[in-house]
Amino acid sequence: MTVRQAGTSSADDAPPELQERFDDTIARDQRIEPRDWMPDGYRKTLIRQVAQHAHSEIIGMQPEGEWITRAPSLRRKAILFAKVQDEAGHGLYLYSAAETLGADRADLTERLLEGRQKYSSIFNYPTLSFADVGVIGWFVDGAAICNQVPLCRSSYGPYARAMVRICKEESFHQRQGYELLMTMMRGTDAQREMVQDAVNRWWWPSLMMFGPPDDASPNSAQSMAWKIKRHSNDELRQRFVDMTVPQAEKLGVTLPDSELRWNEERGRHDFGTPDWAELKRVISGDGPCNAERMERRRAAHEEGAWVREAAAAHAAKQAARTKKGAAA
Ligand SMILES: [Fe+2]
Ligand SMILES: [Fe+2]
Protein backbone atom coordinates (compact mmCIF):
# COMPACT_ATOMS: atom_id res chain seq x y z
CA MET A 1 0.00 0.00 0.00
CA THR A 2 1.26 3.48 -0.78
CA VAL A 3 1.38 5.06 2.63
CA ARG A 4 3.29 8.26 3.07
CA GLN A 5 5.10 8.08 6.35
CA ALA A 6 6.24 11.70 6.55
CA GLY A 7 6.29 12.93 10.11
CA THR A 8 5.70 9.49 11.55
CA SER A 9 7.79 6.61 12.65
CA SER A 10 7.11 3.14 13.86
CA ALA A 11 6.48 2.56 17.55
CA ASP A 12 9.90 0.93 17.91
CA ASP A 13 11.98 3.96 17.00
CA ALA A 14 9.51 6.66 18.09
CA PRO A 15 10.63 8.89 20.95
CA PRO A 16 8.67 7.80 24.03
CA GLU A 17 7.22 11.27 24.50
CA LEU A 18 5.35 10.91 21.19
CA GLN A 19 3.81 7.63 22.26
CA GLU A 20 2.98 9.20 25.63
CA ARG A 21 1.29 12.17 24.01
CA PHE A 22 -0.72 9.82 21.78
CA ASP A 23 -1.79 7.64 24.73
CA ASP A 24 -2.71 10.72 26.70
CA THR A 25 -4.83 12.14 23.88
CA ILE A 26 -6.72 8.85 23.65
CA ALA A 27 -7.12 8.63 27.44
CA ARG A 28 -8.56 12.16 27.60
CA ASP A 29 -11.04 11.30 24.82
CA GLN A 30 -9.60 13.90 22.53
CA ARG A 31 -9.01 13.56 18.81
CA ILE A 32 -5.95 12.44 16.92
CA GLU A 33 -5.50 14.71 13.89
CA PRO A 34 -3.66 13.99 10.60
CA ARG A 35 -0.50 15.89 11.58
CA ASP A 36 -0.18 14.19 14.97
CA TRP A 37 2.20 11.32 15.48
CA MET A 38 0.39 7.97 15.67
CA PRO A 39 1.56 4.36 15.97
CA ASP A 40 1.82 2.48 12.69
CA GLY A 41 -0.73 -0.10 13.83
CA TYR A 42 -3.27 2.65 14.57
CA ARG A 43 -2.75 4.19 11.14
CA LYS A 44 -2.97 0.85 9.32
CA THR A 45 -6.05 -0.27 11.24
CA LEU A 46 -7.78 3.00 10.44
CA ILE A 47 -6.86 2.93 6.76
CA ARG A 48 -8.21 -0.60 6.50
CA GLN A 49 -11.43 0.26 8.33
CA VAL A 50 -12.08 3.57 6.57
CA ALA A 51 -11.26 2.10 3.13
CA GLN A 52 -13.55 -0.86 3.73
CA HIS A 53 -16.26 1.54 4.83
CA ALA A 54 -15.74 3.72 1.70
CA HIS A 55 -15.86 0.67 -0.58
CA SER A 56 -19.10 -0.45 1.10
CA GLU A 57 -20.76 2.89 0.40
CA ILE A 58 -19.80 2.73 -3.28
CA ILE A 59 -20.65 -0.95 -3.85
CA GLY A 60 -23.80 -0.35 -1.78
CA MET A 61 -25.13 1.90 -4.53
CA GLN A 62 -25.63 -1.13 -6.78
CA PRO A 63 -28.40 -3.25 -5.20
CA GLU A 64 -30.77 -0.29 -4.89
CA GLY A 65 -29.48 1.51 -7.98
CA GLU A 66 -30.95 -1.32 -10.02
CA TRP A 67 -34.43 -0.15 -9.01
CA ILE A 68 -34.13 3.51 -9.98
CA THR A 69 -35.49 2.96 -13.49
CA ARG A 70 -38.22 0.68 -12.15
CA ALA A 71 -39.43 2.79 -9.23
CA PRO A 72 -43.26 2.84 -9.30
CA SER A 73 -43.71 6.63 -9.22
CA LEU A 74 -41.86 9.88 -9.81
CA ARG A 75 -41.82 10.48 -6.04
CA ARG A 76 -40.29 7.09 -5.29
CA LYS A 77 -37.77 7.57 -8.08
CA ALA A 78 -36.69 10.97 -6.73
CA ILE A 79 -36.29 9.60 -3.19
CA LEU A 80 -34.30 6.58 -4.34
CA PHE A 81 -32.12 8.71 -6.60
CA ALA A 82 -31.31 11.04 -3.71
CA LYS A 83 -30.51 8.13 -1.44
CA VAL A 84 -28.19 6.40 -3.87
CA GLN A 85 -26.42 9.70 -4.55
CA ASP A 86 -25.96 10.19 -0.82
CA GLU A 87 -24.12 6.85 -0.68
CA ALA A 88 -21.75 8.06 -3.41
CA GLY A 89 -21.10 11.15 -1.28
CA HIS A 90 -20.42 8.99 1.78
CA GLY A 91 -17.85 7.08 -0.23
CA LEU A 92 -16.17 10.33 -1.22
CA TYR A 93 -15.96 11.71 2.34
CA LEU A 94 -14.49 8.41 3.48
CA TYR A 95 -11.88 8.14 0.72
CA SER A 96 -10.87 11.68 1.66
CA ALA A 97 -10.61 10.66 5.32
CA ALA A 98 -8.37 7.74 4.29
CA GLU A 99 -6.19 10.16 2.31
CA THR A 100 -5.58 12.22 5.44
CA LEU A 101 -3.89 9.08 6.80
CA GLY A 102 -1.52 8.98 3.84
CA ALA A 103 -3.41 6.41 1.77
CA ASP A 104 -3.66 6.90 -1.97
CA ARG A 105 -7.18 6.72 -3.37
CA ALA A 106 -6.18 5.11 -6.67
CA ASP A 107 -4.34 2.47 -4.70
CA LEU A 108 -7.38 1.79 -2.49
CA THR A 109 -9.58 1.43 -5.57
CA GLU A 110 -7.10 -0.99 -7.08
CA ARG A 111 -7.11 -3.03 -3.88
CA LEU A 112 -10.89 -3.26 -4.00
CA LEU A 113 -10.91 -4.26 -7.66
CA GLU A 114 -8.28 -6.91 -7.07
CA GLY A 115 -10.24 -8.27 -4.11
CA ARG A 116 -7.49 -7.42 -1.61
CA GLN A 117 -9.79 -5.12 0.35
CA LYS A 118 -13.33 -5.98 1.38
CA TYR A 119 -16.69 -4.26 1.49
CA SER A 120 -19.71 -5.07 3.63
CA SER A 121 -21.06 -8.60 3.08
CA ILE A 122 -24.64 -7.29 2.95
CA PHE A 123 -24.28 -5.89 -0.56
CA ASN A 124 -23.73 -9.35 -2.02
CA TYR A 125 -27.43 -10.19 -1.71
CA PRO A 126 -29.87 -9.57 -4.57
CA THR A 127 -32.74 -7.06 -4.60
CA LEU A 128 -35.62 -9.12 -5.95
CA SER A 129 -38.57 -6.74 -5.54
CA PHE A 130 -39.25 -3.07 -4.84
CA ALA A 131 -40.01 -4.00 -1.23
CA ASP A 132 -36.28 -4.73 -0.93
CA VAL A 133 -35.62 -1.02 -1.36
CA GLY A 134 -37.75 -0.36 1.71
CA VAL A 135 -36.26 -3.19 3.74
CA ILE A 136 -32.70 -2.14 2.89
CA GLY A 137 -33.47 1.37 4.12
CA TRP A 138 -35.05 0.04 7.30
CA PHE A 139 -32.58 -2.77 8.13
CA VAL A 140 -29.33 -1.98 6.34
CA ASP A 141 -29.31 1.76 6.91
CA GLY A 142 -30.68 1.09 10.40
CA ALA A 143 -27.76 -1.23 11.11
CA ALA A 144 -25.42 1.36 9.61
CA ILE A 145 -26.80 3.91 12.09
CA CYS A 146 -26.17 1.56 15.06
CA ASN A 147 -22.62 1.05 13.82
CA GLN A 148 -21.86 4.62 12.87
CA VAL A 149 -23.40 6.79 15.58
CA PRO A 150 -20.69 5.65 18.06
CA LEU A 151 -18.09 6.30 15.34
CA CYS A 152 -18.94 10.00 15.56
CA ARG A 153 -16.83 9.78 18.75
CA SER A 154 -14.05 7.78 17.10
CA SER A 155 -10.59 8.91 18.20
CA TYR A 156 -9.48 9.89 14.68
CA GLY A 157 -10.77 13.41 13.96
CA PRO A 158 -11.44 13.32 10.19
CA TYR A 159 -13.23 9.95 10.45
CA ALA A 160 -15.37 11.11 13.38
CA ARG A 161 -16.34 14.33 11.60
CA ALA A 162 -17.22 12.52 8.36
CA MET A 163 -19.47 10.26 10.43
CA VAL A 164 -21.48 13.14 11.88
CA ARG A 165 -22.56 14.19 8.41
CA ILE A 166 -23.05 10.64 7.16
CA CYS A 167 -25.26 9.70 10.11
CA LYS A 168 -27.65 12.58 9.42
CA GLU A 169 -28.16 11.22 5.93
CA GLU A 170 -28.42 7.61 7.11
CA SER A 171 -31.34 8.54 9.31
CA PHE A 172 -33.16 9.94 6.26
CA HIS A 173 -32.36 6.66 4.48
CA GLN A 174 -33.85 4.61 7.25
CA ARG A 175 -36.99 6.73 7.38
CA GLN A 176 -37.60 6.63 3.64
CA GLY A 177 -37.33 2.84 3.78
CA TYR A 178 -39.72 2.52 6.70
CA GLU A 179 -42.19 4.96 5.15
CA LEU A 180 -42.15 3.00 1.90
CA LEU A 181 -42.89 -0.22 3.80
CA MET A 182 -45.71 1.45 5.77
CA THR A 183 -47.26 2.50 2.47
CA MET A 184 -46.99 -1.02 1.05
CA MET A 185 -48.45 -2.54 4.23
CA ARG A 186 -51.53 -0.33 3.77
CA GLY A 187 -51.88 -1.61 0.20
CA THR A 188 -52.94 -5.00 -1.21
CA ASP A 189 -52.30 -8.51 0.13
CA ALA A 190 -49.74 -9.01 -2.64
CA GLN A 191 -47.85 -5.91 -1.45
CA ARG A 192 -47.92 -7.08 2.18
CA GLU A 193 -46.54 -10.44 1.03
CA MET A 194 -43.74 -8.70 -0.85
CA VAL A 195 -42.77 -6.83 2.31
CA GLN A 196 -42.79 -9.98 4.46
CA ASP A 197 -40.76 -11.86 1.85
CA ALA A 198 -38.15 -9.09 1.75
CA VAL A 199 -38.01 -9.04 5.58
CA ASN A 200 -37.44 -12.81 5.60
CA ARG A 201 -34.56 -12.56 3.15
CA TRP A 202 -32.78 -9.52 4.65
CA TRP A 203 -33.10 -10.10 8.40
CA TRP A 204 -30.25 -12.54 8.93
CA PRO A 205 -27.79 -10.94 6.50
CA SER A 206 -28.49 -7.63 8.30
CA LEU A 207 -27.56 -9.16 11.66
CA MET A 208 -24.33 -10.37 10.06
CA MET A 209 -23.43 -6.78 9.15
CA PHE A 210 -22.10 -6.31 12.68
CA GLY A 211 -19.40 -8.87 11.97
CA PRO A 212 -18.52 -12.16 13.66
CA PRO A 213 -19.32 -12.73 17.36
CA ASP A 214 -16.95 -11.05 19.83
CA ASP A 215 -15.03 -14.21 20.70
CA ALA A 216 -14.22 -14.66 17.00
CA SER A 217 -13.29 -11.03 16.33
CA PRO A 218 -9.60 -10.79 17.24
CA ASN A 219 -8.96 -7.18 16.13
CA SER A 220 -11.87 -5.68 18.05
CA ALA A 221 -10.13 -5.38 21.41
CA GLN A 222 -7.24 -3.32 20.03
CA SER A 223 -9.63 -1.10 18.05
CA MET A 224 -11.60 -0.49 21.24
CA ALA A 225 -8.46 0.29 23.24
CA TRP A 226 -7.56 2.86 20.58
CA LYS A 227 -11.15 4.14 20.72
CA ILE A 228 -11.47 3.73 16.97
CA LYS A 229 -14.37 1.45 17.82
CA ARG A 230 -16.58 2.13 20.85
CA HIS A 231 -18.71 -1.00 21.23
CA SER A 232 -18.26 -4.68 20.46
CA ASN A 233 -19.95 -6.42 17.51
CA ASP A 234 -22.33 -8.31 19.79
CA GLU A 235 -23.33 -5.20 21.70
CA LEU A 236 -24.13 -3.34 18.47
CA ARG A 237 -26.07 -6.34 17.13
CA GLN A 238 -28.12 -6.43 20.34
CA ARG A 239 -28.89 -2.72 20.03
CA PHE A 240 -30.06 -3.22 16.48
CA VAL A 241 -32.39 -6.05 17.49
CA ASP A 242 -33.81 -4.07 20.41
CA MET A 243 -34.39 -1.07 18.17
CA THR A 244 -35.98 -3.05 15.31
CA VAL A 245 -38.41 -5.38 17.14
CA PRO A 246 -40.94 -2.66 18.11
CA GLN A 247 -40.68 -1.17 14.62
CA ALA A 248 -41.55 -4.59 13.13
CA GLU A 249 -44.57 -4.84 15.43
CA LYS A 250 -45.78 -1.41 14.39
CA LEU A 251 -45.31 -2.30 10.73
CA GLY A 252 -47.13 -5.62 11.12
CA VAL A 253 -44.40 -7.95 9.88
CA THR A 254 -42.82 -11.00 11.55
CA LEU A 255 -39.06 -11.20 12.00
CA PRO A 256 -37.99 -14.69 10.88
CA ASP A 257 -36.48 -15.89 14.17
CA SER A 258 -38.37 -18.39 16.36
CA GLU A 259 -35.98 -17.68 19.26
CA LEU A 260 -36.69 -13.97 19.31
CA ARG A 261 -38.30 -12.91 22.59
CA TRP A 262 -38.12 -10.26 25.30
CA ASN A 263 -35.91 -11.22 28.22
CA GLU A 264 -37.34 -9.49 31.28
CA GLU A 265 -34.26 -10.15 33.38
CA ARG A 266 -31.77 -8.71 30.90
CA GLY A 267 -34.14 -5.98 29.77
CA ARG A 268 -33.22 -6.88 26.21
CA HIS A 269 -34.30 -9.30 23.49
CA ASP A 270 -32.95 -12.81 23.16
CA PHE A 271 -32.48 -13.89 19.57
CA GLY A 272 -31.16 -16.75 17.45
CA THR A 273 -27.67 -17.23 16.07
CA PRO A 274 -26.91 -16.07 12.53
CA ASP A 275 -25.38 -18.61 10.18
CA TRP A 276 -21.72 -17.71 10.64
CA ALA A 277 -20.65 -20.19 7.97
CA GLU A 278 -22.73 -18.22 5.48
CA LEU A 279 -21.07 -14.95 6.56
CA LYS A 280 -17.66 -16.54 6.07
CA ARG A 281 -18.64 -17.73 2.60
CA VAL A 282 -19.97 -14.34 1.54
CA ILE A 283 -16.91 -12.51 2.90
CA SER A 284 -14.58 -14.86 1.09
CA GLY A 285 -16.27 -14.04 -2.22
CA ASP A 286 -18.87 -16.76 -2.54
CA GLY A 287 -22.11 -14.89 -1.86
CA PRO A 288 -25.04 -14.74 -4.29
CA CYS A 289 -23.87 -11.52 -6.01
CA ASN A 290 -20.15 -11.07 -5.27
CA ALA A 291 -19.02 -11.68 -8.85
CA GLU A 292 -21.74 -9.47 -10.29
CA ARG A 293 -20.95 -6.57 -7.92
CA MET A 294 -17.24 -6.66 -8.68
CA GLU A 295 -17.81 -6.96 -12.41
CA ARG A 296 -20.09 -3.91 -12.36
CA ARG A 297 -17.57 -1.97 -10.28
CA ARG A 298 -14.72 -2.84 -12.65
CA ALA A 299 -16.77 -1.82 -15.69
CA ALA A 300 -17.70 1.48 -14.02
CA HIS A 301 -14.05 2.12 -13.25
CA GLU A 302 -13.01 1.46 -16.84
CA GLU A 303 -15.88 3.51 -18.26
CA GLY A 304 -14.83 6.39 -16.00
CA ALA A 305 -11.21 6.43 -17.18
CA TRP A 306 -11.82 9.32 -19.60
CA VAL A 307 -13.34 11.42 -16.79
CA ARG A 308 -10.26 10.93 -14.61
CA GLU A 309 -7.97 11.72 -17.55
CA ALA A 310 -9.95 14.85 -18.45
CA ALA A 311 -9.92 16.03 -14.81
CA ALA A 312 -6.18 15.48 -14.56
CA ALA A 313 -5.55 17.35 -17.85
CA HIS A 314 -7.76 20.21 -16.64
CA ALA A 315 -5.94 20.39 -13.31
CA ALA A 316 -2.57 20.42 -15.09
CA LYS A 317 -3.73 23.24 -17.36
CA GLN A 318 -4.98 25.26 -14.37
CA ALA A 319 -1.71 24.73 -12.53
CA ALA A 320 0.32 25.83 -15.56
CA ARG A 321 -1.85 28.93 -15.92
CA THR A 322 -1.47 29.81 -12.23
CA LYS A 323 2.29 29.36 -12.49
CA LYS A 324 2.43 31.59 -15.59
CA GLY A 325 0.31 34.21 -13.81
CA ALA A 326 2.60 34.17 -10.78
CA ALA A 327 5.70 34.50 -12.97
CA ALA A 328 4.28 37.47 -14.96
FE1 LIG B 1 -24.11 5.51 3.53
FE1 LIG C 1 -27.43 4.90 3.65
TrEMBL record:
Q: Which domain of life is it from?
A: Bacteria
> Where does the record place Basic and acidic residues bias?
18-30
Q: Where is this region: Disordered?
A: 1-30
Tell me one Pfam family matched here: PaaA_PaaC
* Residue stretches of biased makeup (Polar residues): 1-11
Provide the transmembrane region boundaries. none
Spell out the InterPro entries in the cross-references.
Aromatic_CoA_ox/epox, Ferritin-like, Ferritin-like_SF, PaaA, PaaA_PaaC
Q: Which SUPFAM superfamilies match?
A: Ferritin-like
Q: Which NCBIfam families does this chain map to?
A: PA_CoA_Oxy1
This chain belongs to which protein, by name? 1,2-phenylacetyl-CoA epoxidase subunit PaaA
Give the organism the record lists.
Streptomyces carpinensis
